[in-house]
Amino acid sequence: MSVQLRKIVPDDAKRLAVLLGHLGYPTGEDTVRERLRDWADDPAGHLIGAEADGVLVGVAALHTMPMLEVDGRLGRLLALVVDEDHRGRGIGESLVTAAEALARTAGCVRMEITSSRHRVRTHDFYQRLGYEDRCPASARFLKGL
Fold first, then answer.
1. Block means of pLDDT (10 residues each) for the chain, length 145 residues?
2. 36 Cβ neighbours under 8 A, 6+ residues apart
3. Are 80 and 40 in contact (CB under 8 A)?
4. In what order do the strands lie in the sheet with 3-7?
5. Hey, what CATH topology would domain 3-128 get?
């Protein structure tokens, strides 16, 4: 199986909706298509797709932003998902590596990833890639608007 990384395009909306469902965020194709328009208009946003045999099997969503407290930019991996039938083949690692490369090119000096506590296997995956769980050292606060 050959996997190519490429930019996500509007025609990926249907398959991307399936992948978001695998991640635990069931979403309709039309909604995904609208979100893709928002991403297309954001120069700090990058959507990387992994394609195997003509089928989208993974995606990484990266956003970069300037930091005020230190020099450089912050890269934030907002979403990462690989189709359940294609996991364990290095696709996720390839997507993270590609996101990190884009972040470096954008001037990022730090990457941030958040992940729900119930995703234990995912946390092990990120730690194998050199990420450190910092929750004991810092808090994360969220509020719906």
1. 92 97 94 96 96 96 95 95 92 96 96 80 85 75 70
2. 8, 10, 12, 13, 16, 47
3. no
4. 3-7, 45-52, 55-66, 73-82, 108-113
5. Aminopeptidase (3.40.630)
